[in-house]
């Protein structure tokens, strides 16, 4: 799904951000990307999103290679890669539902397709009652949930999260993380950049990639490789899978004792 091969990224003014970094994130895997500020976490995410190209080495995302991708193919890649930011990056003059709808409008989706999909995405992030609220009327945790719904609008195979809990209190952070974990459980690969020690301690089953000074200094992937990832078919709508999972859960709760 994501493969870095000896990737180096050098910025003319600030110097080397990454040096000979190699790792592989499998389809449907969840990975913490951690390290101190300036370690190179955001650079890794931007390389996956192909906002920037490596100075040396190669980044593979699904079938797209940083060394061979054509300009006209980049929008195709980005429809398969959702991005969630620490500062939410919502459009302040748009309501929650309009922010999510905008992500679909730019792909050329029809109005008849957009409206029900936006409603179901907001419902699954727990914000259907707040659909008409503007960002300044939402809490930090609620704004991040809108941002997650927006990132999931195109049914991405990869979700990138750049310090998504950095501006949230502990309770909201756990809520946002659990939401992302639930999406991952349906087969979406997640790279979750964080230096939140509470999350790292609480979820010790998650694979950790640690950067320091632009170098990959730790990878717990040996243990992670033993856990087969949950998968979904390419292009399968996330909200439909969430519906199926919720229905199964409800049926299970309603089942009586067996003899």
Mean pLDDT: 87
What is the terminal separation in angstroms? Answer: 45 Å
Helix content: 25-40%
Low-pLDDT segments: 223-236, 255-259
Q: How do the SSEs run, as a string of H and E?
A: EEEHEEHEHHHEHEHEEHH
Number of strands: 10
Q: What best-fitting shape do the alpha-carbon axes yield?
A: globular
Beta-strand fraction estimate: 15-25%
With helices defined by DSSP (H or I, 4 residues minimum), what is the helix count?
9
Largest sheet: 6 strands, mixed
- Give the strand order of the largest sheet, numbering strands 1, 2, ... along the chain: 6-7-8-3-9-10
Task: Explain what you see.
With 259 residues, the protein is an alpha/beta fold. The chain is 36% helix and 23% strand. It is built from 9 helices and 10 strands. It has a 6-stranded mixed β-sheet, sandwiched between helices. Strands 2-1-4-5 form a 4-stranded antiparallel β-sheet, covered by helices on one side. Strand 1 (2-11) and strand 2 form a beta hairpin. Helix 4 (111-124) packs across helix 5. 37% of the residues are buried.
Q: What's the gist of this structure?
A:
The protein is an alpha/beta fold and 259 residues long.
SSE diagram, text form:
Elements: E1 2-11, E2 15-25, E3 30-34, H1 41-48, E4 56-61, E5 64-65, H2 74-79, E6 81-85, H3 96-105, H4 111-124, H5 140-151, E7 158-162, H6 170-184, E8 189-193, H7 197-202, E9 207-212, E10 215-219, H8 221-224, H9 238-254
Parallel strand pairs: 3-8, 3-9, 6-7, 7-8
Antiparallel strand pairs: 1-2, 1-4, 4-5, 9-10
Helix pairs in contact: 3-4, 3-5, 4-5, 5-6
């Amino acid at each position: 799904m994501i493969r870095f091969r000896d990737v180096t990224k050098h910025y003319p003014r600030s110097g080397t951000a990454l040096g000979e970094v190699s790792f592989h994130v499998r389809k449907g895997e969840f990975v913490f990307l951690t390290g101190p500020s300036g370690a190179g976490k955001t650079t890794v995410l931007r390389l996956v999103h192909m906002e920037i190209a490596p100075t040396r080495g190669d980044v593979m995302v699904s079938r797209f290679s940083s060394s061979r991708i054509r300009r006209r193919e980049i929008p195709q890649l980005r429809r398969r890669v959702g991005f969630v930011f620490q500062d939410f990056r919502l459009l302040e003059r748009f309501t929650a539902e309009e922010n999510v709808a905008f992500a679909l409008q730019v792909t050329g989706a029809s109005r008849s397709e957009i409206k029900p999909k936006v409603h179901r995405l907001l419902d699954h992030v727990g914000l259907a009652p707040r659909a008409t609220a503007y960002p300044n009327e939402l809490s930090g945790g609620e704004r991040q949930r809108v941002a997650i719904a927006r990132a999931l609008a195109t049914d991405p195979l990869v979700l990138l999260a750049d310090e998504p809990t950095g501006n949230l209190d502990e309770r909201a952070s756990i809520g946002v993380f659990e939401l992302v974990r639930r999406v991952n459980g349906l087969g979406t690969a997640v790279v979750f950049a964080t230096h939140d020690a509470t999350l790292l301690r609480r979820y010790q089953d998650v694979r950790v990639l640690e950067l320091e000074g632009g170098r990959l200094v730790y990878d717990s992937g040996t243990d992670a490789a033993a856990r087969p990832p949950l998968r979904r078919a390419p292009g399968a709508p996330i909200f439909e899978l969430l519906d199926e999972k919720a229905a199964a859960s409800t049926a299970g709760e309603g089942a009586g004792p067996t003899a």
